[in-house]
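anyone else get weird line breaks when pasting these?? whatever heres mine. first is seq + tokens for prot A
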Amino acid sequence: MADRPYTVLSAAMSLDGFLDAGTSERLILSTPADLERVDALRATCDAILVGAATVRRDNPRLLVRAPGRRADRIAQGLPDSPAKVTVTGSGDLDPDAAFFTAGTTERLVYCPPDLVGDCARRLGDRATVVGVDGPGVLVDVLADLAGRGVRRLLVEGGGRVHTQLLTGGLADELRLAVAPFFVGNPTATRLAGDGGYPWCPDHRARLVDAARLDDLAVLRYALSDRFEES
């Protein structure tokens, strides 16, 4: 068993690198065709991870939508959708959020050890709560997921989680849809925040594919020597 799953980061952003508008109004970045692309990607993964802020802000279901893809997973002896994973530092999670109520797939919540009891009581049987702590929280999360049999992990946000995985050198590939407009709001969430990144002018990420999908540019980057061409 590898010490962490093969990790794919997936995001849609504006031309100036924002994931949202920085307001209470949800910013629509993807198109129906792009959502179909992401659904196909979800169907290939064992688990989907998002930060707790994304659970609170976007209320995502994180399910494979296409009936044919769900049926294919079941035929392979898999759940119809990947397991859902979130990481919280505060334990502020609503047990009635779609993350916990949509679908029947396994749900995992990682939080500081001293919050495990409160989180477990709040969420009840809607999630398994696991304690992780320290500066290498996501390293421990990925190691625990690998120990649970997660071989391929899809990370769908938000910016803080993307930043920690990228600066930690914990991502194997990045799939990025770029919408043809600007946000221009410094309070909005960027794809990646400040930090020391492994990729720089002397160590460039490798562009594997670039495609046009509706009016989006869809880019795929290899970020590690574990990159899988499929």
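and prot B, same format (seq, then tokens)
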Amino acid sequence: MVTFYVEDEDGERQSIEAPGDMGLSLMEILKASDYPVLATCGGMALCATCHVEVVEGKDGLGDASDIELDQIDNLPNPTPTSRLACQIRISDDLDGAVFRLKGESN
């Protein structure tokens, strides 16, 4: 199991455990954990409503694709560590990572 954290606006962190060997995306885990992630395109990197900021653990994510970067460029509030949760696969590399939800519902 991989343990990562979601940080709220007050800096409080909630841990989430997820299997690292099933090829699930961060978006799928966040939705299954009842976080307010719209993900209106269903994980195709077309809507950016699953926008997250990587607070800690960016090195384990790899580089964003050109499609993902194009969507991030169109966001009203991107940060240098913005990513789309639908494009981040859960793996052991995410163990200990911290994310902050930034999508349209936040």
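btw re prot B: The domain at 2-101 is CATH 3.10.20.30 (Ubiquitin-like (UB roll)). The chain is about 15% helix and 25% strand.
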